[in-house]
Q: What sequence folds into this?
């Protein structure tokens, strides 16, 4: 089984544990608020990628009660949990690598910690696909873990017991290049430490970018 498919299987298996562990997203509220500020509409069309159990979706819906949100994830159990939380959101079981097939255009795309499960090439393609799915001056939020490709590998997590999940890391410069090549203007880049349960430190990398006209 390929790394990506195995990760999806693990997230499906431990969906309940993940939903409880990451119910509190306050560590990212500042950057998510800034993303929302730049949307500039009260009833935006938002696409969320790798939405999981809907923890970030809930924050978006609170900020924009009249928004039209399409949220996708490849783990059916994640989508089931999310639908129970937010029945007025259009949740779909779908691979983020296939968003080119979605016919709608969006005012904003939220991509919170999806890139750790994509290779460097797939991450660059996803950013390009996001540009294609956004209206001019649409807003894109991307968060991942900063680091070189050599760090990729199987790791234990705080929600999956002894079952390991494969994580990719992405360098800031590589992602900046992908944004620029896809016609985005980067408005904010943020690095912040995340303390793991074993007290090791991972550096989170957050971008907010605007699609150029």
A:
């Amino acid at each position: 089984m390929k790394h990506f498919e195995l990760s999806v299987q693990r997230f499906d298996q431990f969906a309940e544990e993940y939903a409880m562990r990451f119910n509190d997203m306050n560590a990212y509220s500042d950057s998510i608020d800034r993303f929302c500020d730049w949307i500039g509409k009260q009833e935006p069309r938002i696409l969320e990628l790798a939405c999981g159990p809907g923890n970030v979706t809930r924050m978006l819906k609170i900020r924009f009660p009249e928004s039209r949100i399409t949220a996708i994830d490849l783990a059916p159990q994640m989508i089931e949990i999310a639908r129970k939380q937010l029945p007025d959101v259009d949740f779909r079981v779908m691979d983020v690598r296939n968003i080119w097939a979605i016919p709608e255009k969006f005012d904003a795309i939220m991509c919170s910690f999806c890139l750790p499960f994509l290779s460097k090439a797939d991450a660059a393609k996803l950013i390009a696909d996001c540009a294609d799915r956004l209206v001019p001056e649409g807003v894109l939020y991307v968060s991942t873990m900063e680091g070189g490709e050599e760090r990729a590998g199987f790791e234990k997590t705080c929600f999956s017991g002894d079952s390991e999940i494969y994580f990719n890391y992405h360098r800031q410069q590589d992602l900046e290049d992908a944004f620029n090549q896809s016609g985005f203007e980067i408005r904010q880049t943020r690095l912040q430490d995340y303390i793991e349960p074993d007290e090791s430190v991972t550096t989170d990398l957050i971008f907010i970018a605007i699609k150029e006209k």
Remarks:
- The mean pLDDT is 92.
- The CA atoms of residues 43 and 65 lie 8 Å apart.
